[in-house]
Amino acid sequence: MKPQRLGINVDHVATLRNARGEHYPDPVAAALLAIEAGADGITIHLREDRRHIRDADVGAMKAAISMPLNFEMAATEEMVAIALATRPHACCIVPEKRTEVTTEGGLDVAGHAEALRPMVARLAAAGIRISMFVDPDPLQLAASAAIGAHIVELHTGSYAHGAAGEFERLVAAAKLTSGLGLECHAGHGLTFDNVTPVAAIPEVVELNIGHFLIGQAVFDGLPAVVRRMKALMQAARG
Ligand code: PXP
Question: Which residue of 8, 41, 54, 136 has the lowest C-beta tally within 10 Å?
Answer without folding.
Answer: 54
